[in-house]
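Q: Convert this sequence to structure tokens.
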Amino acid sequence: MNPDNPVVVLCSQGMQAEAEGRDDDARDLFRQAWETAADDYEACIAAHYLARHQPTAHDTLHWNQECLKRADRVADDRVKGFYASLHLNIAHAHRDLDSPEQTREHFTLAAERLADVPPGPYADGLRLAAAEGLRACGALPPNPAAALLDSLAAALCDRRDLKSLSLLLPSLLGDLGTPDDRLRLSTALHTLHATRTLPDSEQAALRQAVTALS
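A:
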């Protein structure tokens, strides 16, 4: 996004106001951005931020759907990386409205669009959110090592083994059940096992988990 675009400037100012706890100011700035928008691309950006400050779940859903509609009208590379986030937001709104089928549909669509997001912390956060949503919906393929890994993660958390957690959690929590995800998780387990820093019982649990995944 062009940082000098007037809509982007207003949204940036709104995010700064939000960070400072000035929610009324943030909402006013996002509304100004919407009123300033001169095309569907700018309206898409403004609607995304307007959705953050709505009084009801129905209003939040409306603005997220408006954002998606405008992105579909743009339909070029400027919005290609937006879709994972857009579908996540719509999924969350449907979840708040207790609409399980639509919730699952949009978490699935979000996961399918993750490849369009440039690699980095933002993409990692979207992946974690999509995986969390799909797990909550019961929409992920069964993980045969899930019980072992949940127990291992709990043990690492109990003793605050941050190094081991940093190796395990990204691939565990971001697992979408695809072959690539399961390979990523298996690689992380092999890497953690190779450090030889865990108690014998946990080393054994790692080996069992790798076997279960393979």
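The CA atoms of residues 171 and 185 lie 5 Å apart.
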